[in-house]
Amino acid sequence: MLCTSDSTRMAGRAPRWPPTRNAPRTPTTSSWAPSWEGEEKAQDAIFYSYTRYINGFAATLEEEDAMQISKHPSVISVFPNRGHKLHTTRSWEFLGMEKDGRVRPNSIWAKARYGEGVIIGNLDTGVWPEAGSFSDDGMGPVPARWRGVCHDQSSSDDAQVRCNRKLIGAQYFNKGYA
């Protein structure tokens, strides 16, 4: 993700195919920074780097800089980061899991034992751990295979995420949010 002073921009980058055995998973700043204004400026601009499920990074840039980087052969795309509004607040009914607040006996929800033992990854627009929907009453222990974390990047102890046996992991990523 590449950011401009007005808006946030994203650059997804991919290695050349076929990748060699010792090739980095994603091009380093040294591979494209010379086409911009140097590696030091590139490193100063980057605030997130993605190498696990997507190759890319988030950085604060001027519009001209984003355009220049987008021309580099290892850069696939550069696009703005923008907020999205929720499309539904009635997900359970929308997915056919409930009707009029009741679980249908033949629903996937019932067939899947209500998700017992399932670890769900969710990208959320905001979590309020104190809300009743995050109560861990009646929940079993956190699955032993869970390897996540529960923290944010805030400096305030009051802002720390309060995880429990239902909300077992949370991270706070807001550097690119304006």
TrEMBL record:
Any single biological process term in GO: proteolysis
UniProt-annotated stretches for the region Disordered: 1-37
Alphabetized UniProt keyword annotations: Signal
Annotated Low complexity bias: 13-29
GO MF terms, alphabetically ordered: serine-type endopeptidase activity
UniProt cross-references to InterPro entries, sorted A to Z: Peptidase_S8/S53_dom_sf, S8pro/Inhibitor_I9, S8pro/Inhibitor_I9_sf, SBT
Key word Membrane present: no
Residue ranges of every copy of the Inhibitor I9 domain listed in the record: 37-87
Pfam families with a match to the protein in the record: Inhibitor_I9 (PF05922)
SUPFAM superfamilies attached to this UniProt entry: Subtilisin-like
Matches recorded under PANTHER family: PROPROTEIN CONVERTASE SUBTILISIN/KEXIN
Family label: Belongs to the peptidase S8 family.
Protein known as: Inhibitor I9 domain-containing protein
Natural source organism: Aegilops tauschii subsp. strangulata
